[in-house]
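Record IncF plasmid conjugative transfer pilus assembly protein TraW, 224 aa.
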Amino acid sequence: MKFELPLPRTGCISAPARVTRRLLAVAAMILSTATHAVDLGTIGPTYGIAEPHLLEFIQQRLRDKERSGELQRLIDEARSRGVAAVRQPAPVEGVRSTETARSWTIDPTFTLDRNIVDAQGRLLFPAGTRKNPLEVVSLSKRLLFFDARDGRQVARARELIARYDGKVKPILTGGSYLALMKAWRVPVYYDQQGTLTRRFGIRQVPALVSQEGMRLRVDEVLVQ
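=>
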């Protein structure tokens, strides 16, 4: 038995049928184009991607520098810079020789901004606690800041150390602490990156920091 779709009585294809056929034709065109667009052929010669291993590249550069002697030169320069930095660290910036004597006091009391707990997590001190370190540990020695590159300051420092029977901790803001320690035969320290001078507000040296009750006294003294 044969079945056929009935056609309109006018003998022509209906509008919906024409639209459907056009859509099918467009779809076929798109699929055909997409199918042929996959292979564009070879335009030129092709090469495999060869990326050298970074570690192998570095090792090869080091071997080249070692053969040329440049590696040993770089090692010697780095060693010399390290030795120089230890023997004479960079001077503290923003500190000059005392021109006008000044004195002031500092309250070292601080307030905890977070809870302090022990290893087991038990609360020792809650946030907001105020404490003065001088209530726990007193300043046993005066702190003396000076620049060892200035002979006058070195002489003034010796006078102050003798005045306080040696109960002074010398701290340099410039110069070689190793050379001074060898000459004086006492420990000499260095204010690395100006941490202490900034904390005490010191801008002139020699400067002496001592304890006065529950406060710290700072004296920027003249060089005589």
